Amino acid sequence: MRLKTSSIHAHGYFDKTTGAFIPPIYQIAMFEQPGWTRTTDRGTDLKYSREENPTVRAVERTIACLEMAEDALCFSSGMSAIATLYLSTLKKGDTLVIPMEMYGTTIQLALDLQKYGIRTVLAWPETEEIVKEVNRKVKLVLVETMTNPTLRVIDVPELAKVCYDLGVTLVVDNTFVTPILYQPIKDKVDIVVHSMTKYIAGHNDVIAGAVVGEKKRILELWDWRRKLGCILAPFEAFLVLRGMKTLSIRVKTHCENAQAMAEFLVEHPKVKEVHYPGLTEDKYHSIARKMFKNGYGGVVSFRIKGGSEEVLKIFSKLKIIKTAPSLGGPESLITYPIISAAKVIPSDIREKLGITEDFLRLSVGLEDVEDLIEDIDRALSST
């Protein structure tokens, strides 16, 4: 099946008794064991919803299909997915390589692992610099397809080749890009993770995460999820599944709106710099054009003329765009990274990365882009 069809039908649910073809919410803690135990389509026991749940399983089949992978696991959040990956893969003496720019809590948790004897290497967030840190002694490399929040695009195919040749496990967080634009598994990436809170669910009303990969790895992770108790809840799974049906058309509009917004901001007299790989002058445009299909993502980052005082003025004048963290929903959200996701990155590193007090990240939503442009223009012109 192609992407649009998969997002709607890949769950594979059909009830022969009723003719229902939409997976229901299996709001149940346990399942009958009449002297024997039922199993799921992947061979795991269906006895307790901390371990398996049919509504969650429907989401897993769908995201696995979209990412062109063998199987998937869903979690209560993106961070619980990453935490499970860390715990299941790393042991004392292992080395983990991550870029020094990515979601702040991902970095925090990686550094916390050092007290258990795991070495964490923070690489400069450019492909060639990450590659320099990869060798046979490295156990795990974790990168974002597009970094948060400056939108550097990592050349995943190049990095994947290096990791594959050295036998190093490569994990790619594909949250910003989604499988609609890029499927890392095709380029020999071992595992893909998602904060499904963002584009996958797509409605700013659910917290969820996913890990996608080959069956053997997923079964190993399944046992860790069972023990950690961080499976996605049935109701949240139902919301994610509902949102996934419109993923392709939503991402298309996000990308179109973000492109228009980036082109507008480039010309605005109150804007110093715009980061968006869809701009031909962007440093990462050629890499993004090689990797992505159907667009360049729904997030635009930019620097304004001024500092925190001007940022507060801009925020106070916005009428449509909401001042809130996160991304990927219908509502456009603008974030001040130094007090949000990047807050935990040391200030000297933030400065080198360009995440300064004049830096803003805008998740461009599904509104009429003309209204969004008018809104940001009015706010910028107020400073």
Mean pLDDT: 96
What is the CATH superfamily label of the largest domain? Answer: Type I PLP-dependent aspartate aminotransferase-like (Major domain)
Largest sheet: spatial strand order: 3-9-8-7-6-4-5
Taking all Cα atoms into account, the compactness measure Rg is 21 Å
| Major pleated sheet | 7 strands, mixed
Residue runs with pLDDT of under 50 for 5 or more positions: none
Helical residue percent band: 25-40%
- CATH fold naming of the largest domain: Aspartate Aminotransferase, domain 2
- The proportion of residues in beta strands is 15-25%
Strand element count = 14
Gross CATH architecture of the largest domain: 3-Layer(aba) Sandwich
Briefly note the structural class of the backbone.
alpha/beta
Distance between the termini: 50 Å
Note the overall shape.
globular
Structural domains: how many: 2
| Series of H and E elements | HEEHEHEHEHEHEHEEHHHEHEHEEHEH
Q: What is the highest CATH level, the class of the largest domain?
A: Alpha Beta
| Tally of contiguous helical segments | 14
